[in-house]
User: Fold ABC transporter permease from Cohnella soli.
Amino acid sequence: MLPACIVLVLFSYVPMFGIIMAFQDFIPTDGIFGSSFVGFDNFVHLFTLDNIQQVMYNTLYISIMKIILGLAVPIVFALLLNEVRSRLFVRSVQTIVYLPYFLSWVILAGVFIEILSPSSGAVNHVLKLFGIDSIFFLGDKEWFPNVMILTDTWKSFGFGTIVYLAALTGIDPSLYEAAKVDGASYFRQMFHITLPGITPIVVLMTVLSIGGILDAGFDQIYNLYNPIVYETGDILDTFVYRVGIKDMMFSLSTAVSLIKSIVSFVLIVISYRLAYRLTEYKIF
Assistant:
């Protein structure tokens, strides 16, 4: 484990020293030791920005909706796939829906830009066949956050499907046989055997996702958004990137990242305790 521990220390713990910039008026030429301390001025300035509340709302809305759909869609798909008797078909579908999970958003962004194009995109061509005007999905502030939620769900639900299918295989088949003998319909079997059987893993996946509620998907949104949709598409991570890298306001961006890290840490601790109480899941 030594090599992994060394990498962890070098790239995860040593950079934590840079947190001090959140309390400085950091100037790159002066460095961390030469820049003056300003206390909590950066945090005060952060909460006086006009758009910070909208950025927080965008982050929470996109993230929470991704969590909800990221749980619901794989569960429904796994239940449907579990009823298919052809193992070859099931394995083929599993592979197909799992493949997007391994693709980078850099690649998928180019694909979705083409598919959702208002002039030449396949989606708008279909809409025109039904007499619906073209929609600028990636340039309309009303559509943009919902497109981010749906495309992320499409990309990642294959992974969740495999998790829930594995949970379904752990249910004792004799329970279904006994239910059939008692005359239970398919839906009664689903509500009284299947869903209770996978409830622990559903609860576990839910509470563990709470810790990442402020991670709305930087790589996805950064590759798909533009200034037109900043109002509804700008999240904390993209805000930090623009403020810190483009505007070179290093201290302010570090303050934002520090707040996000503290909140995420608290949520992770809470979700871990919930996972232990509800499903007796623990790492240590």
